[in-house]
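Lab notebook, bench 4. Still working through the backlog of constructs that have no structural model yet. Next entry is a single chain of 270 residues. Request: give me the structure tokens for it.
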Amino acid sequence: MANTTSELETLLMERSLTDAQLLAAAETASDYRILPDATVIKIGGQSVMDRGRAAVYPLVDEIVAARKQHKMLIGTGAGTRARHLYSIAAELNLPAGVLAQLGSSVANQNAEMLGQLMAKYGISSVSGAGMSAVPLAIEEVNAVIFSGMPPYSLWIRPSAEGVIPPYRTDAGCFLLAEQFGCKAMIYVKDEDGLFTANPKTSKDATFIPKISVDEMKARGLHDSILEFPVLDLLKQARHIKQVQVVNGLVPGNLTRALAGEHVGTIITAS
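Model written out:
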């Protein structure tokens, strides 16, 4: 290990950071998993939060009960209010970075509301600057809430088409799960999982219990249940090799998924 470290340090001093030999040497260093026993849960903005009390209250009760056995990082989506903001900002010809800031403000609002609902259980929300407090919250109360929007702000990578930020809350929650080295990533939506078509508009839509990223792309389903960049992030990930999509409007689904049951759709890296 010492020789490998020495070689890497030498290459870092002498080569470009995109040099192939340097990257190969860096690849030999394994990532340290910071929170390997925790699961990241993404609570959909439009699919759950925007439905109000009828959808949110039962899910709060389920999370509070589940924390007795599971450690959870709970991310919030933005939802309908962000879509209104995107519409106005796009019409004003504002760039993707500005839209990313606007979407982040709505995801923050949802995190704050969810945090207030869970405050009496000791489960609080943390801001981007407070992410260092996550391990303490996980250790003390087994759960913490955060805004799912990644903090790229004006530095977000522009989309190939249009100005809608390509990295939104699905991607933000996945990135957190990967960087913390968590054991699982669960997306809580308002559908049973992935279908061959939109089940809200197509009577012929067929449920897909398990599928790979490559198969999703081959079948043209790459933008049907999760943000498109999440699939590429999943392919490149070191720790999170699959994600699970469950219907949070069905009581018990989240609890079953946390327990490792195959409920909903599982999307695999390969």
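Notes after review: The mean pLDDT is 94. The longest strand covers residues 38-43. Flag for follow-up if needed.
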